[in-house]
Specification:
It is elongated, with a radius of gyration of 24 Å. The chain has helices at 4-14, 52-66, 80-84, 113-122, 175-188, 200-212, 237-250, 264-271; strands spanning 18-27, 37-40, 45-47, 72-79, 91-99, 104-109, 127-133, 147-151, 167-170, 194-196, 223-224. The chain is α/β, with parallel strands linked by helices and 274 residues long. A hairpin with a 4-residue loop joins strand 2 (37-40) and strand 3 (45-47). It is 33% helix and 22% strand. The strands form 2 sheets. It has a 6-stranded parallel β-sheet with strand order 8-7-6-9-10-11, sandwiched between helices. It has a 5-stranded antiparallel β-sheet with strand order 3-2-1-5-4. It has 8 helices and 11 strands. Helix 4 (113-122) packs across helix 7 (237-250).
């Protein structure tokens, strides 16, 4: 049973939604004390607030809230005898903090200067990042908590693992690998945004090769080269990275729900305070 803090870090790295449950107040005889926490995901629970029927009620409620995919806070009161059929007879007030999966999932192929700069920027954003390169020595010793480093001898083998909602950035050091990745992405997925680093000349050459390899021109709308916003100038790695991430963040995302908090009067009511 993982500690709740370890579980949160694990969920962030995997881009998995989760709910943190905290016992804000306990009265009478209760399985765990005030301040106890647990983490609930769609499939797993981590740590405990005491087990038994109470934990089953809390887990079910956490998963119900998680299904809405909306950041939220909710405070519930659980009399253990009345709601959980537990003979200890106390009661708890539990705070549910809902952290849905990030709306933005990005796969970055390439851990060179620009790739590292892009990861630095996306590491500060609400995003899940899969970072792929064959050269393990190119990765830094530590990465932001929302970044998963993947060292693969054949980076293009990861294409089959991508969902069609993923945004892809091809930023490698090798034009031949760039082309293999682009062709695989167009041939094997329905991914709608593929950003490829390079010049207009490179883009023209790749289009000609794609036509020769049987990829129709209708697929050209799915990839962009040079990647990045033209309005963001500069050729330094961080300047290029800002241009690329600006373009990625400007793309339409599905839903932008506002976080739902707990009204203060509700907190007072559940905790029995005036």
């Amino acid at each position: 049973m993982s500690h709740w803090q370890t579980a949160i870090a694990h969920c962030h790295q995997r881009g998995e939604g989760f709910v943190v449950i905290t016992l804000l107040e306990t009265k009478g005889s209760t399985p765990r004390d005030q301040g106890s926490k647990m983490v609930v995901t769609d499939l797993h629970t981590f740590d405990t607030i005491g087990g038994g029927a109470l934990e089953k009620l809390v887990t079910d409620e956490a998963r119900r809230l998680l299904a809405f995919s909306v950041p939220a806070q909710q405070l519930n009161h659980f009399p253990l005898a009345a709601k959980a059929n537990q003979c200890c007879g106390g009661s708890v007030a539990a705070l549910f903090e809902v952290f849905p999966p990030p709306r933005l999932t990005v796969a970055i192929f390439g851990a060179g200067h620009v790739g590292r700069a892009v990861v630095k920027v996306l590491g500060e954003c609400e995003a899940r990042v899969d970072w792929i390169d064959a050269r393990v020595e190119q990765f830094p010793e530590t990465s932001p908590g929302n970044v998963q480093q993947l060292s693969l001898e054949q980076p293009e083998s990861y294409v089959s693992k991508l969902s069609d909602q993923t945004l892809v950035l091809v930023l490698t050091h090798d034009h031949a690998l760039d082309y293999r990745l682009l062709k695989s992405l167009l041939d094997e997925t329905e991914i709608g945004y593929i950003g490829l680093i390079g010049s207009q000349t490179k883009a023209d050459r790749f289009r000609a090769r794609l036509r020769h390899d049987g990829i129709p021109s209708s697929e050209d709308q799915r990839w962009r080269c040079p990647v990045g916003l033209d309005s963001v100038k500069g050729k330094l790695p961080m300047e290029v990275a800002v241009s690329i991430v600006s373009e990625v963040l400007s793309l339409p995302q599905s839903g932008d729900p506002a976080a739902q908090g707990v009204p203060w009067k509700s907190v007072q009511r559940v905790l029995g305070k005036s």
